[in-house]
Structure formats: C-alpha cells, structure tokens
Automatic annotation (TrEMBL):
It catalyses: a (3S)-3-hydroxyacyl-CoA = a (2E)-enoyl-CoA + H2O; a (3E)-enoyl-CoA = a 4-saturated (2E)-enoyl-CoA; a 4-saturated-(3S)-3-hydroxyacyl-CoA = a (3E)-enoyl-CoA + H2O; (3S)-3-hydroxybutanoyl-CoA = (3R)-3-hydroxybutanoyl-CoA. It comes from Brassica rapa subsp. trilocularis. Belongs to the enoyl-CoA hydratase/isomerase family. Keywords: Fatty acid metabolism, Isomerase, Lipid metabolism, Lyase, Multifunctional enzyme, NAD, Oxidoreductase, Peroxisome. The gene is A01p009410.1_BraROA. Pathway: Lipid metabolism; fatty acid beta-oxidation. The lineage of its organism: Eukaryota, Viridiplantae, Streptophyta, Embryophyta, Tracheophyta. This is 3-hydroxyacyl-CoA dehydrogenase.
Amino acid sequence: MAKKMGVTMEVGNDGVAVITISNPPVNSLASPIISGLKEKFQDANQRSDVKAIVLTGNGGRFSGGFDINVFQQVHKTGDISLMPEVSIDLVCNLMEDSRKPLVAAVEGLALGGGLELAMACHARVAAPKAQLGLPELTLGVIPGFGGTQRLPRLVGLAKATDMILLSKSISSEEGQKFGLVDALVPSGDLLSTSRKWALDIAEGRKPFLRSLHRTDKIGSLSEARAILKDTRQLAKKIAPNMPQHHACIDVIEEGIIHGGYSGVLKEAEVFKQLVMSDTAKALVHVFFAQRATSKVPNVTDVGLKPRPMKKVAVIGGGLMGSGIATALLLSNTRVVLKEINPDYLQKGLKSVEANLKSLVSRGKLTQDKAGKALSLLKGVLDYAEFKDVDMVIEAVIENIQLKQKIFKEIEEICPPHCILASNTSTIDLNVIGEKINSKDRIVGAHFFSPAHIMTLLEIVRTENTSAQVILDLMSLGKAIKKVPVVVGNCIGFAVNRTFFPYTQGAHMLVNLGVDLFRVDRVITSFGLPLGPFQELYSLWDDLLRRLGDLAGHRIGMAVKEIYAKAYGDRMFRSPLTELLIKSGRNGKINGRGYYIYEKGSKPKPDPSVLSVVEESRKLTNIMPGGKPISVTDKEIVEMILFPVVNEACRVLDEGVVIRASDLDVASVLGMSFPSYRGGIIFWADTVGPKYIYERLKRLSETYGGFFKPSRYLEERAMNGMLLSEPKASSRSRM
Ligand SMILES: C[C@H](O)CC(=O)SCCNC(=O)CCNC(=O)[C@H](O)C(C)(C)COP(=O)(O)OP(=O)(O)OC[C@H]1O[C@@H](n2cnc3c(N)ncnc32)[C@H](O)[C@@H]1OP(=O)(O)O
C-alpha cells in the first residue's frame, strides 16, 4: 500500500540510516518533503549511532523533482518567497558537506531536483533502466538545486550541456558509462548494496567524493570555453525566444571560471528570476494542461477499465494509414493493414518499412526493434483477418460514400466489441456511421501527419460514442506515446477548425499588398516553426496529405468547400494557391512553390512568384485605393492569429473541448504553436480578450466579416473575463 506523504528514517543495526522520500505518484519534492529531508539529515548527522546514510524514494521511484505545483502557486500569487531555500541549506550544507557519507539508492527515475539530490550524495547506486535527467528548461527555469554545477563535474561538460540544454534523460546504464552512476545493481539488491557502499566510504574502503569539489571531468578553461561557445550557438538555434537556455549557460560558465560554489550561488539567483518569467508561466501551464487531458468527466472517473487492444486493423496504406500502422507497431501492437489492390498494399507496407528505417537511421530505434515491429505487421486485401480485431482505424480518402460502405462492412465482419474508428479530418462522424447500428462504437481517431511522429491524437466523440470506447482509445493513444485529447464532433474538430483562419489571414495580408516573405519571417520569429507560405498548402496540407496520390488537388478543393459550407460567413477566399498551382508550382513536390526547394539546402524565396501574387491582388482588388497597406510586424501577427483566437472562442463556446487548456495542448502539439507562449488560449489571455476584441472589431470594420468578433469573445471582453475561465452554463458537444 502506498505510504502517505512524508520523509522517514530507519536506522539499522549496521549503523546506516535509510532516509526515504514518500510522495506518490512520483515522490515530488513538495515543501513538507523538503522540510522533512532537512529534519532527517540534521537528525542523522547528530545521532551517534548513525555512521552513514542512504537516501531513497518509496514505491520504486527515487524522485520526479521539485514540486511543480509550487511554481504554479508562485505564478498565481506573485509571491516568490513560496520557493523554499534548498540549494545551500539542504543540498550543500546538510548533504554534500556532511561528515557522514551519503549514498543515493536510485530506482525508476531521478529527474530535476531528484537527480540534483542524488548528485549531492557521495555515491550513486542505481537499478537498471532508471531515467536520469534535468528537464528544468522545459519548464522555463534552470536546475536550481546545484544541477548546473554538479552534472558537468560528474559527466563532463559536453555531456552535461547536451543533457541540460536539450532536456535529454539518460538511462542508469548510460549514467554508469558517463560516471553519473557508480554501481548498477538489480532492483532487489539496491538497498543492501547502497548500505554497504555507504559503510565502505565511512570506513575508508571507498573514496569520499563531493561532486561540487571535483574538477577532473571539466577539462581546461579553453576546452570548456569552446564547448560553451558551441552550446550558445545551439541555444540560439533551438530556443531563440526563450531566456532560460542562455541563462543556464551563463550559470555553468560562472562555475567553470569561479568555482562550483560560486556557480551554485549564481544558479540560485538566476533560478528565482526565471521562475517569474512569462516563459516559465507558459511552460508550467502546458505541463499541467497536458496532464489534465487525461481526465475526462464521465469517462475516466466512473470506474471503467481500459480493455486490451491486442490486434488493430488499419484500412488504407497511404501516408496517414502507414504512419498510424507504424505508431502501433512501435508499441508492440499487432497490425493488419488492408488495401484495395496488391500494388497499393505493397506501397503501404513499403512506407511502414521506410518509416521504421528512417527511425533507425536517425538513431531513434535499434535495428532489432525495427525488425520486431515489422514482424507484427500483416498486409491483407480482404476482411478475413478482421474477425478477431479489437479496433479498426479507417484511413482512406475523404470520400463520404466510400467511408459509409467501409463502416457497413466492418460492422458486419468484426467482433461486437471492436471499436470502429475513423481518421477523417473533415467528415462528420455521424454521417460516416449513418448506415450502421452500433453507433456507440464509432469514434474519430484523428492523427496528425506524420502519424508516427506527431504526438497529438484528437479523439472525436459523437453524442453516441460510449465511455468505454473513448477510454479504450485514450489508453491505446497513451500506449503508442500520443497525447490523446478528447473533443466533440464538428467540421475540423478542435484543431483544424481553430486554425482554419490562419492561412486565410496570411493570404489577406498578401492580397492587401504585404510582402509574403515578410509574413513568413514575422510568423517564424513569433515562434511557429514555419511561416504560412513555407509549405504550399499550410492548413490544407494536413488534409491533402491524407488524400495521397489518388485524389490530388481536386479533392483538396472539395475539402475546402466543406469548410466553406460550414463556416462560410467568416472565410476569406483567396485565389493565390490556385494561381500558384496553375503556374506549375506544386511546392516541395516539384521543388517550387513560393520558395525554391533544393535538396540539401534551405528553401530560398523565389522572386519570380511575385507575378502570381500580383495577379491574385488584381483579382481580389482589396487594397484600399489600390495601394499596398502599411503594417507593423505586431499588426501582421494580430491579423493572422487574432482570427484564430476568435475561432478558438467559438470552439470553447460550443463546448467542442472539455476545457480551454485542452485547446492549448492541442494547438502546441497539433499546430506547433510555441509552447513557451502556453498555447493559443493562454497566449490570448496574456494579450487580453478586450484588446483582441477591439482590434478585431476595428479590422472587421475595415476588412469585413473575416475579422468579426465572435459572441464569446465579445462577452468575455465586455465582462472583463479571461477566455479560459470556465463557462457558467454549457452547450457542450461532449
Ligand atoms: C529546483 C529544481 O531544479 C526544479 C525542478 O526539479 S523542476 C521539476 C523537474 N522535474 C520534471 O520536470 C519532471 C516532470 N514530470 C514528468 O516528466 C513526468 O510526470 C514523469 C516522467 C515524472 C512521470 O510520468 P508519468 O508516469 O507518465 O506520469 P504523469 O502523468 O506525467 O505524472 C503523474 C502525476 O504526477 C504529477 N507530477 C509529475 N512530476 C511532478 C512534479 N515534479 N511536481 C509535481 N507533480 C508532478 C503529475 O502532474 C501527475 O499528476 P496528476 O496525476 O494529478 O495529473
């Protein structure tokens, strides 16, 4: 049975005190744990019957680090004094500088502050496969319990900067190779070996090593400077808009130049500044928002248990289907991949193989595991193998009649418990399931392309989808390392619907005379990885990708019409994409779009595309007085992203998502909205609903209905409410 939160100490006859952290589920270092640790270490240091100390975590996990809830409290209250003093009082004075040797017995995970406590011990004994890392930068802060100083001293500067800057965890096996772990022992021997190790140090049989005082792994000053220079370049590239990466390098450098203790003092000071930064506020929000997605009222709180999904069928071996099959295989699920003819089937199977190969060549998968995954795949041309599948995921082209026919067939052939899922991104699930009886088994499994890499999985429920089916798909999603977000049924669901105005805003700006390459530059410096023109189809890209070679552009346009029918009152119709394609530019596919795509080099803006832009401007004729408008970069961001916020408001108003933060997670994982801005709603709340409303109102007066503020936005602005505040009454689609 799980112990209650607290820190315990048991002193054995051998004179070893075992101090255990207990705070399920991850033994996070909440304030009572920190004060408990202080008390127990003081006690152990004073007691004459204690010769040595072992620090461990209860329940097979050492510690998941400092309690992130405290960051959230600091953000809510603005009171930084809520952060306990740990780095000097506990870690340096009571632990590392203790006269009694201290050994960390690490199992499961030691992350952030957890690993920092372990590094302050005089040796570390670990069980196999424990996860060790300092992921603080993903929360907008830096390690704050001495990690910036001790990790380089234990594993060397190059490895430490790699682990900290990229928030990369390593296994205890790798930790042993690099010197972070002193001994690797089976889990059953962890405590006995750690006790013995501690006594060996106490009795002089093993060295008494204090990590902060070590210099043997740091190298010369010039070597260290060269590594830090490269690390700064890396930080510029991976995190141009975030403060914590550069701050972290400065703190590491302080320790290299002035010594570890000086580094620890600077670390504590910078850590406190960063806790209060907007970046930390946004990233901590995303951390909790992501965890909240796994809580679905009336699904995860009603005592249901997920059923095992041992065998899954995927219908359609195109880009989406083969990606979905790959994701399933990677998590050891048996997959049946069905196609309509041997040619397409071969193509599908080859795509899965290619996906796996590319993971192997990028070092993300071993050859052995790729082979095992492939052995779980079976290609078929008929339904014979469907008799014992637990789930079918249909991933064929966006054609209503075809999907209806498939659902009728699978309802007949599959066992009665089998989940009937569609990967559609545009078609109403009720329409797809119109002709079948088991409507409770119909659900949307909307993967994002490439499905084996993108982590978002939109689970689309209709009013008939059963709670069990939703739970099963959530559980499968987690097993295949996705973040499932449960959403309601509407055209575009939550993500594509919210972002459908994104490309249109960009097109409007270009038709109003703004340079399209500037639009891309402004949007990428805002933090999106690509500008709206950097991939030819932008939003439609996701839709078109799933259409494969079969359907092409014509169906792409048909999909666009589905959106126009649903949301036509707020669409800006730009002829730009069509003109571009007419001019023989298909984007990456044929090496030319708005940019010139050459293998091995970055896409270059193509100045000759400006004649196409001119033609589009002539046709739309929206430039006031025929002259290009003049806008600031800030206005460009607003004209593209405020309409997205506006649509997000409608999504909230209609209850398409359970909570506003689900849309934040979905925008970050599905649309690569910068996580350090907290997701689309969090960002909008930071900017202010009133400001957004007023800007949109003014824009709609000048440029029309595309910018017209939604009722929800208007109400929130008028009442001084945040967009994320829950609604009093709900007209939910859940
Ligand atoms: C001063 C220091 O340098 C600063 C720090 O230490 S900052 C903290 C650094 N640590 C981290 O970033 C680790 C964050 N946690 C994780 O990555 C993952 O939770 C994990 C790998 C530990 C476990 O993953 P997993 O088993 O999938 O469980 P997961 O669902 O994520 O978490 C389980 C619960 O623990 C909570 N939790 C995890 N780590 C936590 C932490 N450090 N503080 C508070 N709560 C935490 C989660 O919020 C979740 O709560 P919920 O059940 O109420 O939603």
